[in-house]
From TrEMBL:
This is DUF1003 domain-containing protein. The chain crosses the membrane at residues 61-83, 103-122. The keyword Transmembrane helix applies. InterPro entries: DUF1003 (IPR010406). It comes from the Bacteria. The keyword Membrane applies. PANTHER family: INTEGRAL MEMBRANE PROTEIN-RELATED, MEMBRANE PROTEIN. It holds the Pfam family DUF1003. Keywords: Membrane, Transmembrane, Transmembrane helix.
Length: 195
């Protein structure tokens, strides 16, 4: 049987549709089921293999920028900045380099936000792409599992049918054997084919 004919048969048997009615992913899954092959690497591995230096850097910046450690460290920096530029520290002879309303601090925060936001967006876009790949992978695994369960179910049904036929034949043979034994017993062993 050719590969296309086998795929067509599987499509009809397992999905109840012709091969042409299936989308590309379903056809690929059927081809892997027929061939007995498995899916390749998962979404995270595929993304890491094809990640550029900028994408890996964006992921690291997003990981650091979205952590409690960063928030705590940034809070300490802000408090230190305000303390160093407050009137309390100038009493010790330390000059304030950015007095209230902390214009230079606002400039630094604006620049940080302007740089950090697009980097985090790049990482989020990359994560969304990984999520789409993972969703396709999950769909394929679920479809493949469903197809394999259907195949096993049909195989078990065939075995059960054969077993029942065999049991019926055994029962019919047993009935015939009982009849023969009764006939022999009635005739006193004269009709015994073994003697």
């Amino acid at each position: 049987m050719t590969e296309t004919a086998e795929l067509e048969r599987l499509a009809k048997d397992l999905l109840g549709r012709s091969l042409e009615e299936l989308d590309r992913e379903e056809q690929d899954v059927l081809a892997r089921v027929a061939a007995g092959t498995y899916i390749g690497i998962d979404a995270d591995e595929a993304a890491q293999l094809h990640a550029t230096l900028g994408e890996r850097l964006a992921d690291r910046v997003a990981a650091v920028g979205g952590s409690w450690g960063f928030i705590a460290a940034f809070g300490i920096v802000l408090l230190s900045w305000m303390l160093l530029n407050s009137g309390a520290v100038t009493a010790f002879g330390i000059p304030a380099f950015d007095k209230y309303p902390y214009i230079f601090l606002n400039l630094m925060l604006s620049m940080l936000a302007a740089i950090q936001a697009p980097i985090i967006m790049m990482s989020q876009n990359r994560q969304a792409a990984k999520d789409r790949v993972a969703a396709r992978h999950d769909y394929e695994v679920n479809l493949r599992t469903q197809l394999e369960i259907l195949r096993l179910s049909r195989r078990v049904d065939r075995f059960a049918h054969l077993f029942l036929q065999s049991a019926k034949l055994d029962e019919e043979g047993s009935v015939e054997l009982d009849k023969l034994e009764r006939r022999i017993a009635r005739n006193g062993g004269k009709d015994d084919p073994l003697t």
